[in-house]
Amino acid sequence: MIHSLFLINCSGDIFLEKHWKSVVSQSVCDYFFEAQEKAADVENVPPVISTPHHYLISIYRDKLFFVSVIQTEVPPLFVIEFLHRVADTFQDYFGECSEAAIKDNVVIVYELLEEMLDNGFPLATESNILKELIKPPTILRSVVNSITGSSNVGDTLPTGQLSNIPWRRAGVKYTNNEAYFDVVEEIDAIIDKSGATVFAEIQGVIDACIKLSGMPDLSLSFMNPRLLDDVSFHPCIRFKRWESERVLSFIPPDGNFRLISYRVSSQNLVAIPVYVKHSISFKENSSAGRFDITIGPKQNMGKTIEGITVTVHMPKVVLNMNLTPTQGSYTFDPVTKVLTWDVGKITPQKLPSLKGLVNLQSGAPKPEENPSLNIQFRIQQLAISGLKVNRLDMYGEKYKPFKGVKYVTKAGKFQVRT
Amino acid sequence: MLESNKDSAKLDAMKRIVGMIAKGKNASELFPAVVKNVASKNIEIKKLVYVYLVRYAEEQQDLALLSISTFQRALKDPNQLIRASALRVLSSIRVPIIVPIMMLAIKEASADLSPYVRKNAAHAIQKLYSLDPDQKEMLIEVIEKLLKDKSTLVAGSVVMAFEEVCPDRIDLIHKNYRKLCNLLVDVEEWGQVVIIHMLTRYARTQFVSPWKEDDGLEDNEKNFYESDDEQKEKTDQKKKPYTMDPDHRLLIRNTKPLLQSRNAAVVMAVAQLYWHISPKSEAGIISKSLVRLLRSNREVQYIVLQNIATMSIQRKGLFEPYLKSFYVRSTDPTMIKTLKLEILTNLANEANISTLLREFQTYVKSQDKQFAAATIQTIGRCATNISEVTDTCLNGLVCLLSNRDEIVVAESVVVIKKLLQMQPVQHGEIIKHMAKLLDSITVPVARASILWLIGENCERVPVIAPDVLRKMAKSFTNEDDLVKLQILNLAAKLYLTNSKQTKLLTQYILNLGKYDQNYDIRDRTRFIRQLIVPNEKSGALSKYAKKIFLAQKPAPLLESPFKDRDHFQLGTLSHTLNTKATGYLELSNWPEVAPDPSVRDVEVVELAKELIPAGKAKKENPAKKFYSESEEEEESSDSSSDSESESGSESGEEGDSSEDSSEDSSSEQDSESGSESKGENKRTAKRNSKIKEESDSEDGEKENEKSKTSNSSNAESSSIEESSSDSESESESESEIESESRKVTKEREKKTKQDRNPLAKDISLLDLDDFNPVSTPVALPTPALSPSLIADLEGLNLSTSSSVISVSTPVFVPMKTHVLLHRMSGKGLAAHYFFPRQPCIFGDKMVSVQITLNNTTDQKIANIHIGEKKLPIGMQIHVFNPIESLEPEGSITVSMGIDFCDSTQTASFQLCTKDDCFNVNIQPPVGELLLPVAMSEKDFKKEQACLSALHLLSKPRNANRNE
């Protein structure tokens, strides 16, 4: 399946290669560079490229390209999904998936890739299993290793690999047994010029951090499970229980993982927590324009909205911007033409606004479309859909775990057209 | 350092070497030194040496052989991890000499106890095959063996090997088909993808099409593109009733939970499976899951959108509810934007076009000009597809002509040209407007389009056309080739229609073209000159020049670029690239006749068992996937399904739910009824549903016939179950039945009185009870009813008259006497009478009366007899025999019968002695007129009903004369 993998950084250097079958020359990447040149920006590089002898399937993650070489027919999503899993694993092991981190840990990367794929077919992709096979690097361990000469490679087959619960390590022990769940909901919305909602939808995930000894069998129930319209599960969840009782029943992996992701049906009206008043205008035949936006709270369920950031991709003719915020700070990058306004919290008494002048390239025609505003915000202690966790029960183990649920609502792809 | 005695130094050295490999630097000269360390005790060094070996063994085959013996030893290691990794490395060393050793190792490993080693063996098969394809036959044997493996760990890998080595050997799958379907949910996600793709192909060869049955829009759409003959064929086939092969159903059902997978590849695989092999009506569920994937990474979005685009062409309805999910964000990459646009166009219809057009308006103004241009194309397509909005779109596009951006204007021109071509209506104004644009527009395609339009419609704009040509002639030399060609065309057309004005201009342009640098243009010039300019040499062709140039041109069809992709299997690389990738396996068409389904039967004995239930049983797999051993599972499902197949009349759904409840300890029914064992549960569930059915059928009186049959079939199956169900379930069902039967008896009472029809009904109801052994205690609350009821029924059968009444003896006879004749008035003769409440012996309509005569005189009274009778009409008296003499102080009792004609009128007669005559009267009280009768309440009511207005009988039954 996957023949080879090349890691390429933004400047086009191939800094890591791994082959699972016969060696494929680096020159195959030239086709990729060609495509990259053709595409205006990195986002637009087609994920699937056909070359005379091979097919290149690539992903772009954290300013790195993962380019895999394929020789025969394969479902492209299979490869894409796998490459993302590789990147996730790096992230998990090194804290970040960057060129520097990979270069520093090249041996571990190699060992990981060796375990993850055999002959191009995924072998072990569960983080729990990999961590038993290859221990993640920590400062302590590297010190110990250098003294004792012991290695960070496990010498026994992880039990998970053989059991029917491949996602969980055996013999987990904690002194404090904890189970935390984060219910994170994101509002995807498109708001039109007049402030009407064109499209709005809630996408949610439940991320779990489980530190429980032994083999706990958990079941999590909701107050209002019918809200969830479409759900995708971590493999540990028993589908049948959900079908019949709307209860999430599972033996959790150890550590952090995403339990479910869900969508709340768009039929329900989605509460939009903020509104934006905007007036952006460019004058004809003059090199100036006016820019004025104000943000206010709306349907915030009595919670404060924090972490507001407004990002605007200004038209190319914009040279510079002279603005004064009533709150927070702003930056304008004249190269990428991106305006970022870090607002912070909204206080209803004094609504934050950003006003000022826009300098345009002289002589160029005025841009005909106003840029759309991308808004980020965060509301703590609130799941905007109204989803509530009812209770968490544990079976199979004797101790009493500490349980916690946190709700956060964020802006997802929240866009205001102006 | 590699020679060092210290492990840490060696490790350090190996790490550096691996670093070099990773960077792509050549480290092959170190091979001998590294190979020595292959036997190292340190597992990390060993691993790194493995990495090195796999990378360079191909280049240094001879030296690599040195390491082989180490692997062979490791293959016997007790640690399965070491066995497996030895096999992995051994098979990864691409040295042809060791093929026999590899073959041997694979064979051994495929019989290994550890499924992990067997999984690695499956991987090794592919490696060996790519190294030496001659081993195919041997490898197929191993694959066949491994396919039988029941471990979920092996399944994915071996199917992968199968796909690589012998994808055409579909016969190997038959026996394992059901097992694979059932294991599917438990296989790791990557294996799932491979298996689902393989099973899709398998299903297309083994089952008949489920689509023929569908009569939805889709089919019609399909027919649209097919010739008439094929259509006929199709309709012919439609007549045959289609029943889905249970194995086909099994596959579709078992893959459904996987739509919920977190892995996009799995979801896509299931989606394509549904798309390709499920009945069209069931494919709808995939859209929701696919739309969910759109939240994922850019790359995933790209692939999924492509697939949705293909699907949405054929079946709009599938994604229409999610229209808004395809709205474009300004931050999307261009490739995603254009794909979304494509889908929006496909989904556009009369209902949503206005919303869409408004949305498009926003897009047109986008800063991303490439995207804006694509939007204009899209509007053009919508305009052609939906005739209602053509004019609106056209107007909108004309407005865009005044846009400042050249690309937008150019695109609009091109699209307007296409639109105008489709509509032969007069659009002179637009053409004029466009002619003016020629001064400003520089994009060649747009200029060419305008020129072509003017040329085509030159008769409609007679004033402008020559002027345009004049302008063009001026700038001819500076134009793009594309424009030059169109100028030539325009000139030719104008020459033909309006030669007076344009003759010279045309000549001039043709001359310019003659000396152009581009040979295409020179060619065209020559061709046109010969065609249109009349001279002696020119043949017959020039006569037809006008026809040639100004012929009606067919309008271009604006079609989706995804139109032709549907012949590729969705979700494949070939589909994404729209070319056949190497190793792409075509999806075959459905077979006309299904191949023998029995090939999938695992063993002859298991045949019957496996057919339907295996699938049902497996559905709950995800719930129990990690605490049950797969093998056990299969067996248990088989055995429990036995009873299932016996009671064949079950509907699929019902059977399913009960099956689930029996197997799945955590299912709903279980939690309801608490601690009972599963089997019981299942039966009660069935039971309840059946009883419900019964009561339902009783409600509808007209459905006599139906209810009879259904009842009997139910009773049959329930009696089977009854025998094995224990007290717990019985008591539950008992109470149900009890209440049920009470209802029944009441109803019965009513019905018997009506006429014969209800009788048949009644019997069927009785039958029903009889089938249930539990129904004996049912009768207890009203035990007295049953026998008499049967008597009643008999009576009803014999005669319909009311004389069924059986006369009973009076319970109580009052001794009260009435005075008939007082002794004072009777001159010493006293007479008393009373009603003995006996059936009268003289006639059944008479009331018996006993008269006691006393002689209170001191003389004999002789010849006592009844004299003249003064009776109302109809009343009769049967007199007593005359008494010859009555002694003084003697008394005598006689009985007589009087027919009172059911009235209380007085019977007057004369009681005579030898000397005197006394007038006497007897007036009966009502109660004495009655006959005691034993009668059921039901009969009573019925009788009562007969009596209509005369409610004289309003006494409680059984005690009639006890006034």
TrEMBL record, chain A:
Pfam families: Adap_comp_sub, Clat_adaptor_s
Keyword Ion transport: no
Superkingdom assignment: Eukaryota
Membrane topology: Peripheral membrane protein
Keywords linked to the UniProt accession: Membrane, Protein transport, Transport
Domain MHD: 176-417
Primary location class: membrane
InterPro entries the record matches: Adaptor_comp_med_subunit, AP2_Mu_C_sf, AP_mu_sigma_su, Clathrin_mu, Clathrin_mu_CS, Longin-like_dom_sf, MHD
Stored SUPFAM superfamilies: Second domain of Mu2 adaptin subunit (ap50) of ap2 adaptor, SNARE-like
Localization annotation: Endomembrane system
PANTHER family according to UniProt: AP COMPLEX SUBUNIT MU (PTHR10529)
Recorded family membership: Belongs to the adaptor complexes medium subunit family.
Protein name: AP-3 complex subunit mu-1 isoform X1
UniProt organism field: Galeopterus variegatus (Malayan flying lemur)
Gene label: AP3M1
UniProtKB/TrEMBL annotation, chain B:
Bias (Acidic residues) ranges: 629-673, 723-738
Compositionally biased region (Low complexity): 709-722
Pfam families the UniProt entry points to: Adaptin_N, AP3B1_C, SEEEED
The keyword Protein transport is annotated on this UniProt entry: yes
Basic and acidic residues bias (residue ranges): 218-239, 618-628, 739-758
Region annotated Disordered, chain positions: 218-244, 618-758
Keyword terms of this UniProt record: Membrane, Protein transport, Transport
Domain AP-3 complex subunit beta C-terminal: 758-905
Compartments reported by the entry: Endomembrane system
Topology relative to the membrane: Peripheral membrane protein
Family: Belongs to the adaptor complexes large subunit family.
Identification of the protein by name: AP-3 complex subunit beta
Record organism: Galeopterus variegatus (Malayan flying lemur)
